[in-house]
Amino acid sequence: MSEPPRKKAWADPVVRARICAARKKQCADPALRAKKGEAGKKAWADPVKRAKLSAALKKAWADPVVRAKRIASIKKASANPSTRSKIGTASKKAWANPVARANMTAWRNIEVPAWVPRDLRREFIEIAKAQDEFVAARQVRALKLEMERGDPS
After folding, report:
1. Domains in the chain: boundaries
2. 150 torsion bin: left (phi>0), alpha (psi -120 to 50), beta (else)
3. What is the pTM of this model?
4. Cα–Cα distance, 69 to 46 (Å, whole number)
5. CB atoms within 10 A of CB 136
């Protein structure tokens, strides 16, 4: 089977540079950025779309090649002083917001047991924040058993 046209185009350095330049120009437009931001929020707010997006992201992250590329990209960006400065500014702004600050610190006092699988840690923290660590342990233990057994329910 032949390569899709988009992949072929992306492999061409001239076409790739033209596409990147166009995207950078679009991202510089505040109106377009706001429009795309609202569309993204709307998509994540819809439970059906959220489930599809979440499944696609989890599937991509499970692929070692995709994971390695994303990690390399994050490391490269994190090493850039300009990026570090932007992250620092955004973090300070978020920390100044009392609601955001409460969300950032709420999980810090929650200790996730070593037996909790990595893909269930977020669930453990969310349940522990909402109820307590004992309830979280009970529910996550049940989820872990379902995963081990392969139960669909």
Report:
1. 1-62, 107-153
2. left
3. 0.47
4. 29
5. 23
